[in-house]
Amino acid sequence: MEIGLTVTADGGLAFEDGADRGRVIVSGSDTGGRYALMEWTVAPGCSAALSFGAHRHGALEETFYVRSGQLEFLLGEVVSTLGPGDFVRVPPGVRHGYANVSDKPVELLVGFHPGGFEALFLKYRTDQAGPPAGPGFMEEAGLDHATTFEAD
Fold first, then answer.
1. 19-to-16, 22, 46, 107, 127 alpha-carbon distances in Å
2. Given strand 20-26, what is the order of strands in its sheet?
3. Helix or strand or coil: residue 63?
4. For the stretch 131-143, what's the b/e string if a residue is b when 16 or more beta carbons lie within 10 angstroms of its beta carbon?
5. H-helix segments, the chain
6. pLDDT tens digit string along 44-94?
7. Share of residues in the chain with pLDDT > 70 (%)
């Protein structure tokens, strides 16, 4: 019988990814691989020529809940403006991405179902000494999670 898990506001695993930052609240290793949840703060100032970082996951469902700020979100071919309280579910195989075109950070809760994808953010974080061993975030995401990225 599982006991459960409590993560305090200063718990989890914090990391940086360039100007963005995150915190893995619950990892796939905490849930037997069932899911993972992380906080994600998207830095302001994406260029006016939107670059959504469009991609799709062949073996992963992703969810996004906007806690603060305003975000342009690409789902399939549709772009929506999301704000606090808005939620997006992205099933496996669906093209998606986002851009923060505002002048303020956007705070999200991001879920991965099943868990495991969050480990790549920790492995390839930019706030560590030296580059990690491995083929790189995008290539490893393709190998481990059937993720494909579009060229910007």
1. 7, 10, 11, 13, 10
2. 13-17, 20-26, 36-42, 106-113, 61-68, 87-90
3. strand
4. eeeeeebeebbbe
5. 118-123, 137-145
6. 986 544 678 899 999 899 999 999 999 999 999 999 999 999 999 999 999
7. 96
